[in-house]
Write a structure and sequence with these properties.
By secondary structure, the chain is α+β, with helices and mostly antiparallel strands. It is about 40% helix and about 20% strand. The protein has a 7-stranded mixed sheet. It has a two-stranded antiparallel sheet with strand order 2-3. The protein binds zinc ion.
């Protein structure tokens, strides 16, 4: 086995096998079979120690020669298989498109709503999501025993991690009313979009976090007609100029009188369908004239100033406009949903 003639055999067999190999995988197999650590050349070299010095020299030289010849041939064949970058480029193939991201349907909804009110002269303000009882309830004329303060409706933050007592996750964006009233003097005209939190059972219609847009205007001689004008203007622009509004008397602690606003069902044009529960109307927001008690709490003179406030759920009106039937879809991050809307 250990003489240069055997090496010549190995070399010529290797070359012959390479000539039959027509893809990278087969060339790789030949490489392992001949040049690998347990390959034929390594096996042949194991007999080296039994040879005389002269024989060893001749055999070693032949083995090295065979090894480099096979390695060079394999390398050449492999690089010939790789397509050259420019010559093989087919410029007529369709390009690869990079998908661009887009804004979440709720972010877009908030932008659309905000933009409409900005054109009506409202400034935009934001407030903290972690709030004290005073800004979320007390200053807004909620009595001490109001059910909204109940642990079952409101998320209270635990004092155990070093937080001061009485902090909660705001249940509405109306806290921004009080914070802005404290910072400014009338006249003012503001909308405040943001997240709110309620301890609700999650269903297709309710989620424990959602978005509201709060709006309010305070000044001299601000009346319910100003409020109605702003809300009709908004609904006509956001939904459709054909839409009708209905103001129903209601109750909120921080407004007096208070109303809930329904719009004629945009799905069935008021004829009745499953979305409007065959009523023809859909409730979209609550509103009213700011209660004098709220004005007094922030140091505004209720004899001099009047104002209105309204609050709408962003998810609800985006669902109506885009005909989305399950609020949970907004929070599941399913890309098929976010792409569609
Ligand atoms: Zn309907």
């Amino acid at each position: 086995m250990s003489n240069p003639a055997n090496i010549d055999r190995i070399l010529s067999d290797g070359v012959a096998e390479l000539e039959k190999a027509d893809d990278a995988e087969k060339i790789g197999e030949v490489k392992i079979h001949y040049l690998g650590r347990k390959g034929l050349l390594s096996a042949a070299l194991k007999g080296l120690k039994d040879l005389s010095i002269d024989e060893r020299k001749a055999f070693g030289a032949a083995a090295n020669n065979a090894k480099s010849e096979l390695a060079a041939k394999i390398e050449g064949m492999l690089s010939a298989l790789k397509p050259s970058t420019k010559a093989d480029l087919d410029y007529t193939l369709p390009g690869q498109t990079n998908r661009l991201g887009r804004l979440h349907p709720l972010t877009r909804g908030i932008k659309e709503i905000t933009e409409i009110f900005r054109r009506m002269g409202f400034a935009v303000a934001t407030g903290p999501e972690i709030e004290t009882d005073y800004y979320n309830f007390g200053a807004l004329n909620f009595p001490e025993d109001h059910p909204a303060r109940d642990m079952q409706d409101t998320f209270y933050l635990s004092e155990t991690n070093g937080l001061p007592p009485g902090l909660l996750l705001r249940t509405h964006t109306s806290n921004v009313q009080i914070r802005e009233f404290e910072r400014r003097k009338p006249p003012l005209k503001i909308i405040a979009p943001g997240k709110v939190y309620r301890h609700e059972a999650v269903s297709s219609r309710a989620y424990c976090v959602f978005h509201q847009v709060e709006g309010f205007q305070v000044g001299e001689n601000i009346s319910m007609a100003d409020m109605k004008g702003a809300l009709v203007g908004f609904c006509h622009e956001y939904f459709s100029p054909e839409i009708e509004l209905r103001f129903r008397p209601s109750f909120f602690p921080f407004t007096e009188p208070s109303a809930e606003v329904d719009v004629s069902c945009i799905i069935c044009d008021g004829k009745g369908c499953s979305v409007c529960k065959y009523d023809g109307w859909l409730e979209i927001l609550g509103c009213g004239m700011i209660d004098p008690n709220v004005m007094t709490a922030v140091g505004y003179d209720p004899e001099k100033y009047t104002g209105y406030a309204f609050g709408m759920g962003v998810e609800r009106i985006v669902m109506l406009k885009r005909r989305i039937t399950d609020i949970r879809l907004f929070y599941e991050n399913d890309i098929r949903f976010t792409r569609k809307y």
